[in-house]
Amino acid sequence: MQLADTHTHLYLPDFDNDRDEMVSRAVKSGVCKLLMPNVDIETVHPMLSAAIRYKDICFPMIGLHPTSIKEDFLPQLDEIIKIASQHKFIAVGEIGIDLYWDKTHLAEQIIAFRRQTEYAVSNGLPVVIHSRNSINEIFSVLEEFKGSNLTGVFHAFSADHLYARKAVEMGFMLGIGGPVTYKNSMLGSICKEVGLQNIVLETDSPYLTPAPYRGKRNESSYICIINRKLAEIFEMSEEETASITFENSCRLFNL
Asked: In the chain, how many domains are there?
């Protein structure tokens, strides 16, 4: 059984004391592809180092996270795009708009999201979208790219059924992680509505840990827990849900 964690920040300091062991646990659990979204300029080097250390297991993306965007974001964004042309990346991410923590820099976030999406389209790369409390703003930007063959994934999808259908109709997949295991989560019914062919699995480790480990550090081996929950939702075997979501991941990210 092969699984992919399409969203893990395993290069962060949270894993400095046991990164090798964490990756080993994941691989032994069948999680053989670990996809790493970038955050900002400071995380590029540790992310690329992890990609080299765990070659053919860990794959890097490039992008400027919306919560890293302040008034002086343009020089950092220019540097991110320069780096994008110097290395092989599987996607542009993690990009998007976050209005949960701070709404002050909405205009700057929109500019950065648009520019990074333009880069993705120009280079035939998928995007990994962060859309916290900003689903309308996200779709407003995406509408500008209709007909461009833009594809990607809505990371940690948390909107309703209407937006789930809209995302899929526009050619995007939904990233499903730990919250699907939480009590009273709507994600189970959303997953059934869009179908397994439009879903990829992710942890967002070290964040969004699934039950029963919620509140503790997340890690890629816990993809097995998320896959088990999907198997329950779809009334399929874990092998079947693993196979379909793994193939979705490989196709989307050209692995």
From this structure: 1
